[in-house]
Amino acid sequence: MQTEVNIPAPRLDETIAREHVPCNLCGSEDRQPFCPENGLGLVQCQNCGLVYVSPRPVATELYALYGETYFRNDESGVVGYTDYIADEINIRKTSQRRLKFLERFIQPPGKMLDVGCAAGFFMAEAANRGWHVEGLDVSAFATQYTHERFGFTTYHGSLTDVNLNGTAYDLITMYDVIEHVPDPKAYMQQVAKLLRSGGIYELATPDVGSWPARLTGKRWIGYKLSEEHVYYFSVETLTRMLDEAGFDVVHVRHIGKYVTLRLFLDRLGVYAPWLSKPLALVERIFKLSKRSFYVNPFDIVAITARKR
Fold first, then answer.
1. CB-based contact 95:258 (threshold 8 Å)
2. Which of 12, 34, 105, 149 has a CA 20 to 30 Å removed from the CA of 199?
């Protein structure tokens, strides 16, 4: 008998300002509801297939999410992280793995910008490998923490608003960012302006077209129950947007990260509580909660692209 999974209801704030938006990829306003049972207000463009939220919170409301509580809270299944700072070891291990892969296409030394730099752990690992690093984040908490902890140059604000003109980067990274921003196309166009010719741009985002997303439907973990994710890309829509922004895709892959057993079991509980509960008992008996390992759920797509 199949176990019924209780999915928390979306946390949609009905008091905030919202706006209807056309498709960010092709500009069409021909859209239909997408996975309406998850209650997130998703629509899909009938012209190009891009999935997005409309009506959605205006930009100022979106950016207001990213205070200190975004990085440390008790409802990470809804918004943000349980404790991003405390997870430093695993984030650094994940960063090392990603940087090693990137060096197939571009080698340090060079100038790198990490967009959505959070607490600067990816930047720190990049600096250890010889990169001259700078970071940008819409979170004032994140940019201040990174600068005070590591001394790196950080910029607070949106990539489309911060004045970086005249700066040429060899590498720009953007992990778990593009789904949060109100204008992904403008972000990609700005990346193209900031990269030198032949420079590398790598971004990662939940893949709404992946088999885990299709298989789990409204239970897919990529559907954040708050409104922090306002775009849901597939490989097809993401590669098309990159092409139109002036990039050649050089590699597509699905990536994972290092996680503690505790976090893994919490996430497993969304899909298979009948399995996560006995495993959680083993975890408690043998005190394994802080053990970490690499997990790839094959629903986060990373694309490496080169500026034409």
1. no
2. 149
Structure tokens at 45: 């463009």
Packing angle, helices 273-285 and 261-271, rounded to 10? 160
Domain presence at residue 147:
yes
The token pair at 85 is 């700072």
Tokens 């092709």 sit at which residue?
26
Residue with tokens 């928390």: 8
Long-range pairs for 278-285 at CB < 8 Å and ≥24 separation? none
Number of residues that this document lists for the chain: 308
Alpha helices for the chain (secondary structure H)? 59-63, 68-71, 88-102, 121-128, 140-150, 184-194, 211-216, 235-245, 261-271, 273-285
Task: Judge whether 48 lies within some domain.
Answer: yes
Cβ 89 vs Cβ 119: under 8 Å: no
- Put simply, whether the predicted model's pTM sits higher than 0.85 gets the answer yes
CA 25 vs. chain centroid, Å, equals: 18
Model pLDDT for residues 18-51, shown as the tens digit of each residue: 999 999 999 999 999 999 999 999 999 999 999 9
What does the alpha-carbon distance between residue 167 and residue 164 come to, in Å, rounded to a whole number? 6
Q: Which SS3 state, helix, strand or coil, does residue 257 take?
A: strand
The dihedrals phi and psi of 198, each to the nearest 5 degrees, come to: 85, 0
Per-residue pLDDT band for 16 (boundaries 50, 70, 90) equals: confident
Does 109 sit behind a cis peptide bond, omega within 30 degrees of 0 on the bond before it? yes
- Which position has the token pair 């005249």? 166
Structure-token match 């509980």, residue found: 269
The parent domain of residue 167 ranges over: 18-73+84-307
Parallel, antiparallel or unpaired: strands 257-260 and 292-295: antiparallel
Does 9 map to a domain?
A: no
